[in-house]
Amino acid sequence: MSVLDNFEQWKSFLSERLEQAQQQGMNSEVVSDIAYQIGDYLARQVDPKNPEERVLADLWNVADEQEQHAIANAMVKLVQSKK
User: Domain 7-81 sits in which CATH superfamily?
Assistant: First the structure.
């Protein structure tokens, strides 16, 4: 089972990776850029596995680059708020 199959598992996975990045000293700008790159990769290469991912993919695909960065930052904040 992939972490992409269940949105709660996906958020937990992201939260764990974010915590690891912060422990390794990555600053928020680097984390934000990585989140953007992951979002872009997922939107281009991975079929959404659940309704939440479908909404995110649809939003990503209609957003310009600045809006995509905002979506990525919002996902970072979302997983940070669940710690």
Answer: Protein of unknown function DUF3243 (1.10.760.20)
